Fold:
Amino acid sequence: MMKDERVDRRVQRTRQLLNEALMSLIVEKSYESITVQNIIDRANLGRSTFYAHYQDKEDLLLSGMKKVVHSLMGSVENSPMADEGNGESRRILSTLPIFRHAQEQFRLHKAMVAGRGMDVILKTIQNHLSGHIQEQIELLLPDGQTPSVPPPVMATYLAGALLTLLTWWLDHNMPYPPEQMDEMFQVLAMPGVWAALETTL
Structure:
């Protein structure tokens, strides 16, 4: 094994330990009360090691969340849905993977959406989600047509609605299964999307 490869693996392992330490602490206490000392104690690493990789706990949080957000965004894609009225199929924005992931990591997600001081991460998630949804909406547009509602506006609306619905679901301890939450989001969101896409300027 090359020396650079050993260094890279050591860096990855250190960052993983720090990220896991922060995530475990978020489940236990509010984000704003967590200190760098708490994190390095949990990870069993030195303070100099922490600052060799991150500027502060927010830098660590954002770095760790990028992987989660990227994974989730890749799963929010167009999926075919049969239209029972005329047999044709339309496409929807599948949110089922997001609800399933939140269910699997319930304590972490609930701590994130309910915790004080977590506004920065929710804003980051919404921005990434909005950007990805915009890409998917633009794939639905007929060639050369401009919808009456610009894709960035639709995407921002949908991302906000999805995060609000997800927060409500977690706050109420997931009263419905992920599949039903996805179906309800489709019922609420997609008719408006299609109405906007079919009304062109």
